[in-house]
Amino acid sequence: MSEYEKVCLIRGDGGRAIRGILDRIGDKWTLLVVATLHGQRMRFTELLRRIPGISQRMLTLTLRQLERDGLVGRTVFAEVPPRVEYELTATGRTLVGPAVALAEWAVEHNPEIERSHQAYDSRDH
Amino acid sequence: MSEYEKVCLIRGDGGRAIRGILDRIGDKWTLLVVATLHGQRMRFTELLRRIPGISQRMLTLTLRQLERDGLVGRTVFAEVPPRVEYELTATGRTLVGPAVALAEWAVEHNPEIERSHQAYDSRDH
DNA sequence: CCGGATCCCCGTTGATACTG
DNA sequence: CAGTATCAACGGGGATCCGG
Questions:
Q1: Predicted structure pTM score
Q2: CATH code at B13?
Q3: Does the beta carbon of A68 lie under 8 angstroms from any beta carbon of chain B?
């Protein structure tokens, strides 16, 4: 596929494709949950501890969304007290690659972006 | 770099890296503007036409942000009527790759995600 | 332990009107 | 043509309390 055709993937259908994925992962916590779940199943409270700043409510909502999308599996153990474990599905694991690519881009270009900010803000507007 | 270390890029610093990039491109219009600008400089009104649904205000805000980030260049021609052209910078062009990777993921997995939605919604909750 | 339900704040977006 | 100014609507997300 040519570079041009690939870019059309973003613009295709009035941007509905890219909007879909951004609605899915562009929020505050989804990618952090996916990354935290990468390589190890984990229970609710442990996710809560490992993701600094997230609230119970937002963790619940994020996990529900991911479960509905089929990216995260949820297992309930019939015990007292209750135990629930989460893990990435096969599909969920395929998301890690593109997400990491984006994070690498961010880390690599952050310095020049910050320099650009300083240059921009010191000009008059 | 190992897969584990890459995932740490996402989680690193309490997720500040990934939060930064998502704040930058996770909004409604930024990636669409970048994709539309890919391969061709363009003036304001043409962008407005090519991106269905965007308002003058949001296009302006999005372009300003991208300019401040150093991802888009802005050229003003001293003419009457005024003419302003926008184009991706070298840095801006490097963003296209990871963005396209994400769009490809979205297009490829959309069918199964929709199936997952139907399965999830038909179960009781 | 794992959530569901509620209330509320505030940032983002959009519509509209105006200007150099 | 290429914006700016202003106002209103909307929804994400946090705090808190309650329940199985």
A1: 0.93
A2: 1.10.10.10
A3: yes
